[in-house]
UniProtKB/TrEMBL annotation:
Keywords: 2Fe-2S, 3Fe-4S, 4Fe-4S, Iron, Iron-sulfur, Metal-binding, Oxidoreductase, Tricarboxylic acid cycle. Pfam families: Fer2_3, Fer4_8. One of its GO terms (molecular function) is 2 iron, 2 sulfur cluster binding. It comes from Robertmurraya siralis. GO terms for biological process: respiratory electron transport chain; tricarboxylic acid cycle. This is succinate dehydrogenase.
């Protein structure tokens, strides 16, 4: 009789931010077309480790399950990616799951991505409009610009680009690639451009664009294929021009 197929997972676990991490192995039954989330759900159904010991269910974060919310980011076989869109059939076993290292661990595979949201606030990644009355139709964008701006708008704040960037870490205040790219997105919009100078000022200070070391890892890992390095290059030009404008007071 053919032996039943199984999936071997090595999961880095941690009770909270201040506890030491440890590895726990799980062996679960194989089903075709499983993703990492369904494997984690299988463990949650019956939290028994590979030694046959009863343990606690592994904690992770997920919401949309269709690679839109960005919350299930984790390191899978050494690469930061989304657990929902990573299929077991395409991975080598044993499958190693670790939390992102750039962000503080809340528990097991769940991390606190507040850093990226704070950076979005710092760069004012929105268009401030008064919603108390009808402003009428906004200005139109040329179709060509709209098309590439749409690509930038696909960012789901998953944090994979920050994880891959060697200049984003606990000791640095670098805001990272995703918030920079959002500056380019909102500065491109005809209404958003009204606050262009504020956004450029935000990235010209500490932790801004000059902290980028041009390693180009970010663009390699972005699950949405966002042209992050192109955005950073464009912003380098914009901030240089802005510093001339500041100097000459124009
Ligand atoms: Fe994730 Fe890409 Fe946005 Fe970075 S730019 S947070 S990798 S979607």
């Amino acid at each position: 009789m053919e032996a039943k197929k199984s999936i071997r997972l090595l999961i880095t676990r941690q009770i909270d931010l201040h506890s030491p991490s440890y590895e726990e192995e799980f062996i679960i039954p194989y089903r075709p077309n499983m993703n990492i989330i369904s494997a984690l759900m299988e463990i949650r159904k019956n939290p028994v480790n590979a030694k046959g010991e009863k343990t606690t269910a592994v904690v992770w974060e997920s919401v949309c399950l269709e690679e839109v919310c960005g919350s299930c980011s984790m390191i899978i076989n050494g690469k930061p990616r989304q657990a929902c869109s990573t299929l077991i059939d395409k991975l080598e076993q044993p499958i190693r799951l670790e939390p992102l290292k750039t962000f503080p661990v809340i528990r097991d595979l769940m991390v606190d991505r507040e850093r990226i949201f704070e950076a979005l606030k710092k760069v004012r990644a929105w268009i401030p409009i008064d919603g108390t009355y009808d402003l009428g139709a906004g200005p139109r964008m040329p179709e060509k610009t709209r098309q590439w701006a749409y690509e930038l708008s696909k960012c789901m704040t998953c944090g994979c680009c920050l994880e891959a960037c060697p200049n984003v870490n606990q000791k640095s205040s670098f805001i990272g690639p995703a918030p920079l790219s959002q500056v380019r997105l909102f500065n491109t919009h005809p209404t958003g451009a009204m606050n262009k100078e504020e956004r450029l000022a935000a990235i010209m200070g500490t932790g801004g664009i000059t902290a980028c070391g041009n390693s180009q890892n970010c663009v390699e890992v972005c699950p949405k294929g966002i042209p992050l390095t192109t955005s950073i290059a464009a912003l380098n030009r914009e901030t240089t021009l802005q510093s001339f404008r500041n100097f000459f007071g124009s």
